Amino acid sequence: MAMAAIFAISVCVLSVFVWRKWNGRIGRETPPLTQAAVTPDYASGKILRAMVGNTSASYVDGGGSTWDSDHFCSGGSSFSVTGHAIQGTEDPQLFSSGRRGAFHCNYPVPPGTYEVHLLFAETSGLQENSRNVGFSINGGPPSNLDVVDDAGGDDIATTKVFTDVAPATDGTIHVDFATPEAFVNAVEILRGAPHSMLPVRIVVGHFPYVDSNGNVWMPDRYFFGGRLSSFGGDLSKVTDGRLYEWHRFGHFHYVVPVATRRKYTLKLHFMEHWFGVQNGGIGGVGSRVFDVSCNGSMLLRGFDIFREAGPEPLVKSFQHIEPTPQGKIEIYFTPAVNYPSVSAIEVIPE
């Protein structure tokens, strides 16, 4: 009996130790490993970001970027939304207001080529095929959008991406909404590249990051499900170690908006954060096994980070990825043994 009691107490103590170690990593805020300043805007030129329908004040998002209040649009009517948790974004404030009806937005920009992002989230409890959002850019071909269908439900953020946009002769980019039930929440205009889309680089965690090649990585976005945890080990000797400081784990997926009619290279960055000697000697090969699929095609089956890379960073690259007809790169991480994990994602136009 005495030996059994001692054994039971030992198990409890060990369990508490492991629980504290695990939970001590989850949600721990730490500054980026780099000392380089991260500007919210790409170095390629001015970025214009604006909330629509919100005329009160500007907003600084989680990545440090400023969104102007609405002084670019006229017509229709403004609206505000309260009490809605918006999935697919860490900045629900961007979807707390909007403008609906037939209205026009004029965004002054210098000459050049631009990429226009239109941000939507349906918050009226509608089902598919209930609202037709009709719009055009610079008088071009009209587009019709069913936001619920595009996003996959109500209270879910979705973004439409348009490339090769140039200002009209009056020096503005015109976005016109034509149908009575049309609406939009926010507009983002980036200095773009002719006949291509800007790369999308996402680092898991709460901070933007500039890597050793000068690439800007924006904090985690476009995710559904999973949780965050930070790495407790030393990353100072790992090249661009900030990319692996955090990871998303659980049963989760990402839906990255891109321009249609193009192909992309997808790069997934991994590092084993929990299993193995460097993490306290718990588990090893076979402790974390999962599948990764993209737009219905299997990319990795029975994938084991530790088996392939041990304690080192690992990058998996996949070429010729075609977006869905809605302009999405949908990446699903499905568990087999314990939880999937990812630290950073790149979507690069080919």
The number of helical segments is 3
Q: Kindly identify the CATH topology of the largest domain.
A: Jelly Rolls
How does the overall form come out from the CA principal axes?
elongated
Counting DSSP E segments of at least 2 residues, the number of strands comes to 26
Distance between the termini: 68 Å
CATH superfamily of the largest domain: Galactose-binding lectin
Strand content: 35-45%
Describe the main β-sheet briefly: 6 strands, antiparallel
Helix and strand sequence: HEEEEEEEEHEEEEEEEEEEEEEEHEEEE
The parts where pLDDT drops under 50 for at least 5 residues are 1-45
Characterization of this structure:
By secondary structure, the chain is mostly beta strands. It folds into two domains: 48-191, Galactose-binding lectin (Jelly Rolls, Sandwich), CATH 2.60.120; 199-349, Jelly Rolls (Sandwich). It is built from three helices and 26 strands. It has helices at 2-25, 147-151, 305-309, and strands at 48-51, 59-60, 66-67, 73-80, 97-108, 114-120, 133-137, 143-145, 158-165, 172-177, 183-184, 186-191, 200-203, 209-210, 216-219, 223-224, 227-230, 246-249, 252-257, 264-270, 289-294, 297-303, 314-321, 328-337, 341-342, 344-349. The strands form six sheets. Strands 4, 5, 7, 8, 10 and 11 form a six-stranded antiparallel β-sheet that branches. It has a six-stranded mixed β-sheet with strand order 14-15-13-26-20-23. A hairpin with a 2-residue loop joins strand 21 and strand 22. The radius of gyration is 22 Å and the shape is elongated. The model is unreliable at 1-45 (pLDDT under 50).
